[in-house]
Protein backbone atom coordinates (compact mmCIF):
# COMPACT_ATOMS: atom_id res chain seq x y z
CA UNK A 1 0.00 0.00 0.00
CA UNK A 2 1.50 3.41 -0.96
CA UNK A 3 2.21 5.98 1.76
CA UNK A 4 -0.90 7.74 3.03
CA UNK A 5 -1.14 11.37 1.99
CA UNK A 6 -3.22 13.72 4.11
CA UNK A 7 -4.40 17.27 3.51
CA UNK A 8 -5.88 19.84 5.86
CA UNK A 9 -9.21 21.10 4.62
CA UNK A 10 -11.18 24.04 5.95
CA UNK A 11 -13.57 22.68 8.57
CA UNK A 12 -16.59 24.56 9.89
CA UNK A 13 -19.80 23.78 11.76
CA UNK A 14 -21.89 24.49 8.68
CA UNK A 15 -20.64 21.20 7.19
CA UNK A 16 -23.08 19.31 9.42
CA UNK A 17 -25.93 21.45 8.15
CA UNK A 18 -24.88 20.78 4.56
CA UNK A 19 -24.80 17.03 5.26
CA UNK A 20 -28.26 17.22 6.87
CA UNK A 21 -29.61 19.15 3.88
CA UNK A 22 -28.44 16.29 1.63
CA UNK A 23 -29.89 13.75 4.06
CA UNK A 24 -26.53 12.05 4.53
CA UNK A 25 -24.27 11.50 7.54
CA UNK A 26 -21.15 13.52 8.25
CA UNK A 27 -18.86 10.60 7.41
CA UNK A 28 -20.25 10.40 3.89
CA UNK A 29 -20.20 14.17 3.51
CA UNK A 30 -16.54 14.31 4.56
CA UNK A 31 -15.65 11.50 2.14
CA UNK A 32 -17.23 13.26 -0.81
CA UNK A 33 -15.84 16.66 0.23
CA UNK A 34 -12.31 15.35 0.79
CA UNK A 35 -12.23 13.55 -2.57
CA UNK A 36 -13.33 16.74 -4.33
CA UNK A 37 -11.03 19.19 -2.53
CA UNK A 38 -7.95 16.96 -2.32
CA UNK A 39 -8.44 15.63 -5.85
CA UNK A 40 -8.16 12.04 -4.66
CA UNK A 41 -10.06 8.88 -5.50
CA UNK A 42 -11.66 7.00 -2.61
CA UNK A 43 -13.13 3.51 -2.38
CA UNK A 44 -15.54 4.95 0.22
CA UNK A 45 -16.97 7.62 -2.07
CA UNK A 46 -20.72 7.99 -1.63
CA UNK A 47 -20.81 5.52 1.29
CA UNK A 48 -22.55 6.04 4.62
CA UNK A 49 -20.71 5.20 7.84
CA UNK A 50 -22.45 1.81 7.82
CA UNK A 51 -21.31 1.10 4.26
CA UNK A 52 -17.77 2.26 5.04
CA UNK A 53 -17.52 -0.11 8.00
CA UNK A 54 -18.96 -3.00 5.99
CA UNK A 55 -16.38 -2.30 3.26
CA UNK A 56 -13.58 -2.40 5.83
CA UNK A 57 -14.83 -5.75 7.15
CA UNK A 58 -14.96 -7.10 3.60
CA UNK A 59 -11.37 -5.99 2.91
CA UNK A 60 -10.06 -7.48 6.18
CA UNK A 61 -11.74 -10.81 5.46
CA UNK A 62 -10.09 -10.83 2.04
CA UNK A 63 -6.68 -10.14 3.62
CA UNK A 64 -6.40 -6.78 1.86
CA UNK A 65 -5.10 -3.44 3.07
CA UNK A 66 -7.77 -1.16 4.50
CA UNK A 67 -7.26 2.44 3.37
CA UNK A 68 -8.20 5.23 5.80
CA UNK A 69 -11.45 7.11 5.42
CA UNK A 70 -11.53 10.87 4.88
CA UNK A 71 -12.33 11.31 8.59
CA UNK A 72 -9.26 9.27 9.57
CA UNK A 73 -7.10 11.25 7.12
CA UNK A 74 -8.30 14.51 8.64
CA UNK A 75 -7.42 13.27 12.13
CA UNK A 76 -3.91 12.46 10.87
CA UNK A 77 -3.62 15.82 9.09
CA UNK A 78 -4.41 17.62 12.35
CA UNK A 79 -2.14 15.27 14.36
CA UNK A 80 -4.98 13.95 16.52
CA UNK A 81 -4.24 10.49 17.87
CA UNK A 82 -7.74 9.28 18.66
CA UNK A 83 -7.17 5.53 19.07
CA UNK A 84 -4.89 3.27 21.08
CA UNK A 85 -2.96 3.54 24.34
CA UNK A 86 -1.01 6.63 23.25
CA UNK A 87 -4.07 8.60 22.28
CA UNK A 88 -4.37 12.33 22.93
CA UNK A 89 -6.56 13.97 25.54
CA UNK A 90 -10.10 15.09 24.71
CA UNK A 91 -8.87 18.71 24.80
CA UNK A 92 -6.89 18.09 21.59
CA UNK A 93 -10.12 18.27 19.61
CA UNK A 94 -10.75 21.70 21.09
CA UNK A 95 -7.29 23.07 20.31
CA UNK A 96 -8.74 24.91 17.28
CA UNK A 97 -12.22 25.78 16.08
CA UNK A 98 -11.67 23.54 13.06
CA UNK A 99 -10.65 20.42 14.94
CA UNK A 100 -13.62 20.85 17.30
CA UNK A 101 -15.81 20.31 14.23
CA UNK A 102 -14.47 16.74 13.97
CA UNK A 103 -15.39 15.79 17.54
CA UNK A 104 -19.09 14.91 17.02
CA UNK A 105 -18.08 12.59 14.18
CA UNK A 106 -15.50 10.94 16.45
CA UNK A 107 -18.30 10.28 18.95
CA UNK A 108 -20.54 8.86 16.20
CA UNK A 109 -17.65 6.69 14.99
CA UNK A 110 -17.04 5.18 18.43
CA UNK A 111 -20.74 4.62 19.08
CA UNK A 112 -21.08 2.83 15.76
CA UNK A 113 -18.01 0.71 16.55
CA UNK A 114 -19.75 -0.40 19.75
CA UNK A 115 -22.96 -1.10 17.88
CA UNK A 116 -21.11 -3.43 15.50
CA UNK A 117 -19.49 -5.27 18.43
CA UNK A 118 -22.83 -6.64 19.63
CA UNK A 119 -25.40 -6.25 16.89
CA UNK A 120 -26.38 -9.41 15.00
CA UNK A 121 -28.10 -7.30 12.36
CA UNK A 122 -25.26 -7.52 9.77
CA UNK A 123 -25.32 -11.32 10.14
CA UNK A 124 -29.04 -11.85 9.64
CA UNK A 125 -30.35 -9.23 7.22
CA UNK A 126 -30.30 -9.59 3.44
CA UNK A 127 -30.32 -5.84 2.73
CA UNK A 128 -29.65 -2.61 4.58
CA UNK A 129 -31.12 0.58 3.18
CA UNK A 130 -30.22 4.07 4.31
CA UNK A 131 -33.43 5.74 5.42
CA UNK A 132 -34.63 8.94 3.78
CA UNK A 133 -37.43 10.29 5.93
CA UNK A 134 -39.09 8.90 9.05
CA UNK A 135 -41.34 6.23 7.48
CA UNK A 136 -40.64 3.26 5.26
CA UNK A 137 -42.99 1.30 3.03
CA UNK A 138 -41.40 -1.85 1.70
CA UNK A 139 -41.79 -3.37 -1.74
CA UNK A 140 -44.10 -6.36 -1.89
CA UNK A 141 -44.38 -9.21 -4.41
CA UNK A 142 -46.67 -12.25 -4.51
CA UNK A 143 -45.34 -14.83 -2.05
CA UNK A 144 -47.07 -17.82 -3.68
CA UNK A 145 -44.66 -19.51 -6.08
CA UNK A 146 -47.26 -20.23 -8.73
CA UNK A 147 -47.86 -16.48 -9.06
CA UNK A 148 -44.15 -15.85 -9.72
CA UNK A 149 -43.35 -18.69 -12.10
CA UNK A 150 -42.49 -17.94 -15.69
CA UNK A 151 -45.05 -19.45 -18.04
CA UNK A 152 -44.90 -20.85 -21.52
CA UNK A 153 -47.12 -18.68 -23.70
CA UNK A 154 -48.26 -18.92 -27.27
CA UNK A 155 -47.34 -16.52 -30.03
CA UNK A 156 -49.10 -13.20 -29.64
CA UNK A 157 -50.29 -14.05 -26.12
CA UNK A 158 -49.44 -11.65 -23.32
CA UNK A 159 -47.19 -12.79 -20.52
CA UNK A 160 -48.94 -13.27 -17.16
CA UNK A 161 -48.12 -10.41 -14.80
CA UNK A 162 -46.67 -10.47 -11.31
CA UNK A 163 -47.21 -7.20 -9.52
CA UNK A 164 -44.57 -5.48 -7.41
CA UNK A 165 -46.27 -2.99 -5.13
CA UNK A 166 -45.75 -1.00 -1.97
CA UNK A 167 -47.06 -2.71 1.18
CA UNK A 168 -50.12 -1.36 2.96
CA UNK A 169 -48.40 -1.25 6.33
CA UNK A 170 -45.69 1.28 7.14
CA UNK A 171 -42.65 -0.45 8.63
CA UNK A 172 -41.92 0.85 12.13
CA UNK A 173 -38.61 2.69 12.22
CA UNK A 174 -37.75 3.18 15.86
CA UNK A 175 -35.39 5.64 17.47
CA UNK A 176 -32.85 4.32 19.98
CA UNK A 177 -30.96 6.93 21.96
CA UNK A 178 -29.52 8.44 25.09
CA UNK A 179 -28.70 11.90 26.35
CA UNK A 180 -24.97 12.44 26.83
CA UNK A 181 -24.22 14.74 29.73
CA UNK A 182 -20.66 15.71 30.65
CA UNK A 183 -18.77 18.95 31.21
CA UNK A 184 -15.69 19.85 29.22
CA UNK A 185 -13.83 20.42 32.48
CA UNK A 186 -14.49 16.84 33.54
CA UNK A 187 -13.50 15.38 30.16
CA UNK A 188 -10.66 17.54 28.86
CA UNK A 189 -7.85 15.53 30.47
CA UNK A 190 -9.33 12.13 29.68
CA UNK A 191 -7.57 10.10 27.00
CA UNK A 192 -9.55 9.79 23.79
CA UNK A 193 -9.33 5.99 23.85
CA UNK A 194 -10.93 5.95 27.34
CA UNK A 195 -13.61 8.45 26.30
CA UNK A 196 -14.15 6.49 23.09
CA UNK A 197 -14.72 3.33 25.13
CA UNK A 198 -17.55 5.08 27.00
CA UNK A 199 -19.10 5.96 23.65
CA UNK A 200 -18.69 2.37 22.49
CA UNK A 201 -20.69 1.22 25.51
CA UNK A 202 -23.59 3.42 24.35
CA UNK A 203 -23.23 1.82 20.93
CA UNK A 204 -23.19 -1.66 22.46
CA UNK A 205 -26.58 -1.00 24.04
CA UNK A 206 -28.00 0.37 20.80
CA UNK A 207 -26.76 -2.81 19.09
CA UNK A 208 -28.50 -4.95 21.70
CA UNK A 209 -31.75 -3.01 21.41
CA UNK A 210 -31.89 -3.12 17.61
CA UNK A 211 -31.02 -6.84 17.56
CA UNK A 212 -33.95 -7.46 19.93
CA UNK A 213 -36.15 -5.49 17.54
CA UNK A 214 -34.92 -7.52 14.54
CA UNK A 215 -35.82 -10.81 16.21
CA UNK A 216 -39.18 -9.42 17.30
CA UNK A 217 -39.98 -8.76 13.63
CA UNK A 218 -38.66 -12.20 12.66
CA UNK A 219 -40.96 -13.87 15.18
CA UNK A 220 -44.05 -11.66 14.88
CA UNK A 221 -43.82 -10.24 11.37
CA UNK A 222 -43.70 -6.56 10.38
CA UNK A 223 -47.45 -5.94 10.36
CA UNK A 224 -48.01 -7.40 6.90
CA UNK A 225 -49.10 -10.95 7.93
CA UNK A 226 -45.68 -12.52 7.40
CA UNK A 227 -44.61 -14.58 10.41
CA UNK A 228 -42.04 -17.38 9.78
CA UNK A 229 -43.11 -19.77 7.06
CA UNK A 230 -41.80 -23.13 8.32
CA UNK A 231 -41.58 -24.74 11.76
CA UNK A 232 -39.40 -27.83 12.30
CA UNK A 233 -40.36 -29.84 15.39
CA UNK A 234 -38.29 -32.41 17.23
CA UNK A 235 -39.30 -36.06 17.03
CA UNK A 236 -39.55 -36.25 20.84
CA UNK A 237 -40.63 -33.27 22.90
CA UNK A 238 -37.86 -31.79 25.05
CA UNK A 239 -34.98 -33.64 23.34
CA UNK A 240 -32.77 -32.85 20.35
CA UNK A 241 -31.75 -36.00 18.48
CA UNK A 242 -29.51 -36.43 15.45
CA UNK A 243 -32.48 -36.68 13.11
CA UNK A 244 -33.73 -33.35 14.49
CA UNK A 245 -30.41 -31.68 13.63
CA UNK A 246 -30.68 -33.04 10.09
CA UNK A 247 -34.33 -31.97 9.81
CA UNK A 248 -33.39 -28.45 10.94
CA UNK A 249 -30.53 -28.21 8.42
CA UNK A 250 -32.79 -29.32 5.57
CA UNK A 251 -36.21 -28.14 6.74
CA UNK A 252 -36.65 -24.92 4.75
CA UNK A 253 -38.68 -25.34 1.56
CA UNK A 254 -36.69 -25.27 -1.69
CA UNK A 255 -35.07 -23.08 -2.91
CA UNK A 256 -34.57 -21.62 0.58
CA UNK A 257 -31.92 -22.85 2.99
CA UNK A 258 -31.60 -21.93 6.65
CA UNK A 259 -27.99 -20.79 6.87
CA UNK A 260 -28.07 -18.95 10.22
CA UNK A 261 -30.05 -19.29 13.41
CA UNK A 262 -30.18 -17.90 16.92
CA UNK A 263 -31.07 -19.44 20.27
CA UNK A 264 -30.64 -19.18 24.02
CA UNK A 265 -27.60 -20.64 25.73
CA UNK A 266 -29.18 -23.77 27.26
CA UNK A 267 -30.87 -24.95 24.06
CA UNK A 268 -27.74 -24.23 22.04
CA UNK A 269 -25.68 -26.31 24.47
CA UNK A 270 -28.09 -29.20 23.95
CA UNK A 271 -27.90 -28.78 20.17
CA UNK A 272 -24.08 -28.67 20.18
CA UNK A 273 -23.89 -31.72 22.43
CA UNK A 274 -25.99 -33.60 19.89
CA UNK A 275 -23.66 -32.57 17.07
CA UNK A 276 -20.62 -33.57 19.12
CA UNK A 277 -22.14 -37.03 19.61
CA UNK A 278 -22.81 -37.65 15.93
CA UNK A 279 -20.93 -40.56 14.39
CA UNK A 280 -20.15 -38.58 11.26
CA UNK A 281 -17.19 -36.19 11.50
CA UNK A 282 -17.40 -32.59 10.37
CA UNK A 283 -15.47 -32.20 7.11
CA UNK A 284 -13.31 -29.16 6.20
CA UNK A 285 -16.27 -27.44 4.52
CA UNK A 286 -18.32 -27.54 7.73
CA UNK A 287 -20.60 -30.33 6.56
CA UNK A 288 -21.70 -33.30 8.61
CA UNK A 289 -22.42 -36.41 6.53
CA UNK A 290 -22.57 -34.15 3.49
CA UNK A 291 -25.14 -31.83 5.08
CA UNK A 292 -24.32 -28.14 5.57
CA UNK A 293 -25.31 -27.15 9.09
CA UNK A 294 -26.51 -23.59 9.64
CA UNK A 295 -24.27 -21.17 11.53
CA UNK A 296 -25.47 -20.63 15.09
CA UNK A 297 -25.52 -17.49 17.25
CA UNK A 298 -26.32 -17.11 20.93
CA UNK A 299 -28.77 -14.39 21.98
CA UNK A 300 -29.66 -15.09 25.61
CA UNK A 301 -32.36 -12.46 26.02
CA UNK A 302 -36.08 -12.50 26.70
CA UNK A 303 -37.04 -11.88 23.07
CA UNK A 304 -35.82 -15.45 22.33
CA UNK A 305 -37.94 -18.20 23.88
CA UNK A 306 -36.09 -20.97 25.71
CA UNK A 307 -37.40 -23.86 23.58
CA UNK A 308 -36.99 -22.43 20.09
CA UNK A 309 -34.38 -21.53 17.49
CA UNK A 310 -35.14 -18.85 14.94
CA UNK A 311 -33.51 -19.38 11.58
CA UNK A 312 -33.18 -17.41 8.36
CA UNK A 313 -32.01 -17.75 4.80
CA UNK A 314 -29.92 -14.60 5.09
CA UNK A 315 -30.20 -13.97 1.35
CA UNK A 316 -33.96 -13.40 1.40
CA UNK A 317 -35.44 -13.29 4.90
CA UNK A 318 -35.12 -9.89 6.54
CA UNK A 319 -34.53 -6.29 5.51
CA UNK A 320 -33.11 -3.42 7.54
CA UNK A 321 -33.57 0.34 7.23
CA UNK A 322 -31.42 2.76 9.18
CA UNK A 323 -30.19 6.34 9.30
CA UNK A 324 -26.72 4.92 8.61
CA UNK A 325 -24.95 6.46 11.58
CA UNK A 326 -25.83 7.82 15.02
CA UNK A 327 -27.40 11.28 14.98
CA UNK A 328 -25.82 13.77 17.37
CA UNK A 329 -26.68 17.33 18.42
CA UNK A 330 -23.37 18.54 17.08
CA UNK A 331 -23.76 22.23 17.95
CA UNK A 332 -23.93 21.53 21.69
CA UNK A 333 -20.81 19.36 21.49
CA UNK A 334 -18.84 21.88 19.41
CA UNK A 335 -19.96 25.20 20.89
CA UNK A 336 -21.00 24.26 24.43
CA UNK A 337 -18.27 21.68 24.90
CA UNK A 338 -20.17 18.56 25.94
CA UNK A 339 -22.65 20.17 28.32
CA UNK A 340 -25.24 17.76 26.95
CA UNK A 341 -26.32 16.30 23.65
CA UNK A 342 -28.85 13.77 22.39
CA UNK A 343 -27.41 10.74 20.62
CA UNK A 344 -29.82 8.59 18.62
CA UNK A 345 -30.02 5.92 15.96
CA UNK A 346 -33.05 5.14 13.82
CA UNK A 347 -33.51 1.54 12.79
CA UNK A 348 -36.32 -0.65 11.51
CA UNK A 349 -36.85 -4.14 10.10
CA UNK A 350 -39.18 -5.82 7.66
CA UNK A 351 -39.78 -9.30 6.31
CA UNK A 352 -38.73 -9.66 2.68
CA UNK A 353 -39.90 -13.25 2.22
CA UNK A 354 -41.56 -15.11 5.09
CA UNK A 355 -40.70 -18.46 3.46
CA UNK A 356 -37.02 -17.72 4.16
CA UNK A 357 -37.65 -17.47 7.92
CA UNK A 358 -37.94 -20.67 9.95
CA UNK A 359 -38.47 -21.92 13.52
CA UNK A 360 -37.10 -24.97 15.33
CA UNK A 361 -39.40 -26.06 18.17
CA UNK A 362 -38.23 -28.50 20.86
CA UNK A 363 -41.50 -28.58 22.82
CA UNK A 364 -44.64 -29.23 20.82
Helical content band: 25-40%
Helix tally equals 11
- The overall average pLDDT, rounded, is 85
Q: How many whole angstroms does the radius of gyration measure?
A: 24 Å
In short:
The protein is α+β, with helices and mostly antiparallel strands and 364 residues long.
Verbal overview:
Helices cover 35% and strands 17% of the residues. By secondary structure, it is of the alpha+beta class. It has a domain at 124-142 and 161-182 and 214-364. Strands 1, 4, 11, 12 and 13 form a five-stranded mixed β-sheet that branches. It has a five-stranded mixed β-sheet with strand order 5-14-10-6-9, with helices on both faces. Helix 5 packs across helix 8.
Features:
364 residues; alpha+beta; 5-stranded mixed beta sheet; 11 helices; 17% strand; globular
Topology:
Layout: H1 14-21, H2 26-37, H3 49-61, H4 70-77, H5 97-118, H6 121-124, E1 127-130, E2 139-141, E3 164-166, E4 173-180, H7 184-187, H8 192-220, E5 230-233, H9 242-250, E6 260-263, H10 265-276, E7 287-288, E8 291-292, E9 295-298, E10 308-312, E11 318-322, E12 327-328, H11 330-335, E13 341-351, E14 357-361
Parallel strand pairs: 1-11, 5-14, 6-9
Antiparallel strand pairs: 2-3, 4-13, 6-10, 7-8, 10-14, 11-13, 12-13
Helix pairs in contact: 1-2, 5-8
Amino acid sequence: MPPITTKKLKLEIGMYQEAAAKNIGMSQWLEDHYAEKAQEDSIYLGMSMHEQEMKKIELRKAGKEVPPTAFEKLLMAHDIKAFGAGSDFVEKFYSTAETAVLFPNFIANRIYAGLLLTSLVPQFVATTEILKGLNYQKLYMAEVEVDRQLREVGQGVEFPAVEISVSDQVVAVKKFGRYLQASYEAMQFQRLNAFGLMMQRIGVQIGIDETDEMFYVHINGDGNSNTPGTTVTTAASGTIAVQDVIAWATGAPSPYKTDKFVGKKALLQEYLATIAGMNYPVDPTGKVAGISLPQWFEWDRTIITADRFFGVDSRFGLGHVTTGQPMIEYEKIIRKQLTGAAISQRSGFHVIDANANTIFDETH
